[in-house]
Design brief:
The structure holds two protein chains of two kinds. By secondary structure, chain A is an alpha/beta fold. Chain A is about 50% helix and about 10% strand. The longest helix of chain A has 20 residues. The chains are: A alpha/beta, B mainly alpha.
């Protein structure tokens, strides 16, 4: 039996030597400052880094005096462990669940290893709602640039909200807090050979928490700034993993979501403030180019999945000049629902089906970006709210076509 | 007169004796065929129920087999087609067995040749079926990946992959059927090698400028993508 502990903080990593030092220091400071009387362990679940990530973790030190922490009662232990199974974030997090359960932790949190904007307060905001308020799952809430997180804004958030009736704004945020019970529940599920073991882990954790009636809330963490990735290169793969996990969960919880009508807010912790956000450069022309290439080449698949009526509308969108291109929210809602139905009815190999959604998604994203160009953050958020309402209103269509 | 009568009766008698000897064989043949038709009908009915239970039609839809049938202007359900194929396969089999019961040397050798050829024909059909599905699957995968990468010649690329695989599969099936195997192998080598060389030459010589433009625009795109939208 492993030594018992109160708090476990998991940091999945793979070659993050540049940024993980800051993350470990912030976590360490957060634990010392806000939970000085608790026993805590920092678990780094590593995918075989070769850039000295584990050395950086070992050597990351904080000056407690500088942080006005006078007497930390116990220092957090640091463990670096390789994970097993399919390479990916999900497998790394599974190792954290295992250690949390083995050590009998009451509260846990997961933070990404490439975060640049994490502060000690994030640990307090992710752990306290569990330890002090009795919540089982804490989702993050960030201030993000209006063009950031487009899969979240156009598919994941509207669908999760319409399906399960809880307004969790960042269901695939990357940072989470959860109780020991929740970790035990996650660990028991037989999903570790699926896309959940990779990018699908975030949506899976959130959906399972809501669908199984655990107490959920969200915590405002400020801005999320992390290492730039190459979004273009692995977009298809990312979309496949996230959306197929989302659709698999729709399949699994079909009895549950069919009963849900409308949506409600969940408790939100943390002090809301506005953050100066970095401008995000967007290549709308490239997105529309891929949308039009899809229209020219994937017409048979689209026609089969979304039907002649909606395909006709999509086709007429393709004839519009770039500046006038607008993807109506109602049409997008029906497209996503039709894809969910096609996935459910196994009309096409799952990978092909979801990859064929990429050009449509890019068309929708390009349309949103052009619409929101002159809008404030609030204005863009209102657009997303409008899309969510469309998803909620059109849910009946999905229920009827499901069978 | 008696001699003349014998001349007429002897052949008739001979035919009668031959028919008498042959009649049981004929009866056996008819019995085998009638039983065969009944067994084939029974197998067809059982197969139809089995295919329905394992949802073969849905699986065929998913694998693109139904689409292939539609392309060939066949509108029956895949389960019906497989069951009917099995039915006719059995009918042909029982016919052959029935004919062999006649004990006629020419038919016997034809029947034995037919049975010797059956495994090859079956393998060729399996190769064609699996090959078609693999070619369709890979062609579609290439098409979607090329579209998502923003390539303008996505359909052409997908069709080229499908064509290459189809040529390969046809050559394999013909080789299996032993239809002029040396000519098939030579023809395949020439066609396949020719396609590859043509692609290499067209890309290497005629495509120098487009290739340069593609590489340069790729570099520019990569530069632009740094700081591009974060999808998740």
């Amino acid at each position: 039996m492993a030594e018992s502990t109160d708090i476990v903080i998991g940091i999945p990593s793979y070659n993050n030597a540049k940024t993980i030092g800051h993350v470990v220091r912030a976590v360490d400071a957060g634990l010392a400052k806000y939970f000085p009387d608790k026993k805590a362990v920092i678990v780094n679940s590593d995918g075989g880094s070769t850039d000295g990530t584990s050395e950086v973790i070992k050597n990351a030190a904080i000056d407690h005096n500088a942080l006005l922490i006078q007497h930390p009662l116990s220092m957090a232990h640091r463990i670096t462990t390789p994970y097993h199974g399919i390479p990916g974030k999900g497998s790394a997090i599974r190792t954290v669940f295992q250690m949390a359960v083995d050590m009998g932790a009451s509260a846990c949190a997961i933070v990404d290893s490439d975060l640049r904007s994490i502060t000690p307060e994030w640990i307090e905001l992710l752990i306290s709602p569990v330890l002090k308020e009795g919540n089982d799952f804490v989702a993050p809430l960030y201030d993000r640039h209006k063009f950031d997180g487009t899969i979240t804004n156009s598919i994941v958030y509207p669908m999760t909200r319409a399906f399960y009736g809880k307004r969790i704004r960042q269901p695939i945020g990357g940072e989470f807090g959860f109780s020991g019970n929740m970790a035990e529940f996650y660990l028991k599920q037989d999903v570790w050979g699926t896309d959940v073991a990779r990018f699908g882990i975030d949506i899976w954790m959130t959906t399972e928490a809501i669908a199984n009636d655990f107490r959920v809330c969200q915590a405002f963490l400020g801005a999320k700034i992390h290492d730039p990735k190459d979004p273009g290169s692995d977009l298809s793969e990312m979309l496949v993993q996230v959306v197929s996990s989302l659709f698999d969960l729709t399949e699994k919880h079909s009895d549950k979501w069919k009963e849900v009508k409308g949506s409600i807010d969940v408790p939100t912790f943390g002090f809301r403030y506005h953050v100066g956000l970095e401008h995000v450069k967007v290549n709308v022309g490239r997105m529309l180019g891929i949308f039009r290439a899809g229209l020219d080449n994937l017409d048979k698949i689209w026609l089969d999945v979304i039907g002649a009526g909606d395909f006709g509308e999509i086709k007429s969108l393709g004839t519009l000049p770039d500046k006038e291109f607008r993807f109506p929210p109602k049409l997008w809602t029906r497209v996503v629902f039709d894809y969910a139905i096609a996935y459910h009815k196994k009309r096409l190999a799952p990978q092909h089906l979801i990859k064929s959604l990429v050009p449509l998604y890019l068309g929708k994203t390009a349309s949103f970006i052009m619409e929101a160009e002159e809008m404030t953050q609030e204005g863009a958020e209102a657009q997303i709210e409008q899309l969510c309402l469309e998803f909620e209103e059109n849910k009946e269509y999905l229920i009827k076509s499901w069978k | 007169m008696e001699g003349f009568l014998n001349l007429i009766l002897e052949p008739i008698n001979e035919v009668y004796l031959k028919f008498k000897g042959f009649f049981p064989n004929l009866l056996a043949m008819l019995t085998i065929i009638i039983i065969g038709v009944f067994v084939a009908w029974l197998v067809k009915a059982v197969l139809l129920k089995f295919f329905k239970a394992i949802k073969l039609d849905i699986w065929c839809d998913r694998m693109g087999f139904t689409a292939l049938l539609r392309k060939a202007d066949i509108w029956s359900k895949p389960a019906d087609i497989f069951a009917v194929a099995a039915y006719w396969f059995m009918i042909i089999g029982f016919l052959m067995v029935g004919f062999s019961a006649l004990n006629i040397q020419a038919i016997d050798s034809l029947v034995s040749q037919f049975f010797l050829y059956l495994p090859r024909a079956f393998s060729a059909v399996v190769i064609l079926l699996i090959g078609y599905m693999v070619a369709g699957f890979l062609g579609r995968a290439v098409l979607i990946a090329a579209v998502n990468s923003g390539l303008h010649y996505a359909k052409l690329l997908a069709e080229a992959v499908r064509l290459l695989l189809t040529v390969l599969i046809l050559a394999m099936a013909l080789e299996q059927l032993q239809v002029a195997p040396s000519i098939v192998v030579a023809a395949f080598s020439i066609i396949f090698g020719g396609i590859v060389i043509a692609l290499a030459i067209s890309f290497g010589v005629a495509g120098i400028d487009p290739a340069r433009r593609m590489i340069e625009s790729g570099r520019e795109e990569k530069k632009e993508q740094k700081g591009d939208v974060e999808h998740v």
